[in-house]
Amino acid sequence: MLSSRRVLVLGGARSGKSRTALELAEGASPERTYIATAQAYDGEMRERIAQHRAERDESWRTLDAPLDLVEAVRAQAGPGQAVLVDCLTLWLSNIVLAERDPVHEADRLVQAVRDAGGPLILVSNEVGQGIVPATPLGRRFRDEQGRLNQRIAEACDAVVFVAAGCPILLKPAPPLQLRLE
Question: What pTM did the predictor assign?
Fold first, then answer.
């Protein structure tokens, strides 16, 4: 059992990070809000959104915030209310494509995470472990996502990495002690 107020759940595509985040939120409070950042631009994305909705029962309230995530977190993250944001990767993509300043938006989001008055679980992809993107936009996005993940991880009480459906606690962790001989 994780007893942190703010948790970042990281992982690759189809790693089980959303399922892990749902379980954390369901254990945190019977009052839950799912803040979705996806936009259904095509049939495949509509199917993905429908699949995510099907994973949640009727006890969840869903709020769409593809761009205005900061405002949604500020409005929802209060005492007794668990909030799950899924996911920061799609949100950042929306920000970049809308030609908003990702650094400024990240600053605002980090402050909203720090100010959260209740349980807050944020899902994000770890995109820096794959191949180097072929385009300048892809490389820029990868770099912005890495910086955002670092900043959100610093603002959170706990960070969980999910690989092959197995959650691994990264933070808090015992201090790293190296012995060089």
Answer: 0.91
